From TrEMBL:
Residue spans of biased composition, Polar residues class: 92-106
GO molecular function annotation: structural constituent of ribosome
Localization, UniProt: Mitochondrion
InterPro entries registered for this protein in UniProt: Ribosomal_mL49
Keywords, in A-Z order: Mitochondrion, Ribonucleoprotein, Ribosomal protein
Biased composition (Low complexity): 54-70
Protein name as it appears in the record: Large ribosomal subunit protein mL49
Region of interest (Disordered), residue spans: 25-125
Gene source species: Pseudopithomyces chartarum
Primary location group: mitochondrion
Family, similarity comment: Belongs to the mitochondrion-specific ribosomal protein mL49 family.
One GO term of the biological process aspect: translation
GO annotations of cellular component type: mitochondrial large ribosomal subunit
Length: 202
């Protein structure tokens, strides 16, 4: 026995083996847990405090469900989980056997609304590349959008008034720069102004 005693001081300094110190998810080391459905139905309430707590939890859950008048929204289907159906699967075949009913159901196309205005007292000249001189500008770090109309001859105030009515803007949103003779509209309206000027014959 004298041999074992000198080894004991050495063994005391060693830490415990790793499998004993570390949490393991191995099934052989796991304690079987009852399922939540079984535990809730089989677990008897031991004290009045637990009974009161269970009643409070049930009341809070019921109140939360009662507060929401709408049913819970379904979760959106991810594109990777969607079924691969085509639009052709959902199209119903049209019946051509009775053309009288199909003509009754179809509506005539709505006529395009055109404004009948007198000839303009102004002219907007084209650029050298035959484009309309309508430009967008950004100020205040990009949060102020402006649309500028250049190369205007004639009555500039009439163009300003027509654009204000056409774009449904306030008086202070459509201005004339008296130095450069440009019309400046607040907002990004290049396509609308271009269409308006083309409709006016520019």
């Amino acid at each position: 026995m004298p041999r074992i005693q000198p080894l004991l001081p050495l063994l005391r300094q060693l830490p415990a083996p790793r499998p004993l110190c570390r949490f393991s998810t191995a099934s052989r080391l796991r304690i079987p847990q009852p399922s939540p459905a079984q535990s809730s139905s089989e677990a008897p309430i031991k004290s009045p405090k637990e009974a009161a707590r269970a009643a409070d939890l049930a009341a809070a859950e019921a109140a939360t469900d009662a507060d929401n008048p709408n049913a819970p929204a379904p979760k959106p289907v991810l594109p990777s989980k969607r079924s691969h159906t085509t639009i052709a699967d959902h199209v119903q075949p049209s019946s051509t056997s009775n053309p009288a009913t199909s003509s009754r159901n179809s509506r005539p196309a709505a006529p395009l609304v055109t404004l009948e205005l007198p000839p303009p007292k102004y002219h907007v000249g084209r650029t050298s590349t035959k484009n309309l001189p309508v430009y967008s500008d950004y100020k205040r770090g990009g949060n102020l959008h402006l649309t500028t109309i250049r190369k205007i001859t004639g009555d500039i105030s009439e163009l300003r008034d027509e654009l204000r009515v056409f774009l449904n803007k306030k008086d202070e949103d459509v201005k004339i720069n008296s130095l450069t003779q440009h019309v400046i509209v607040k907002g990004h309206h290049v396509p609308q102004v271009t269409d308006f000027l083309k409709a006016r014959g520019m």
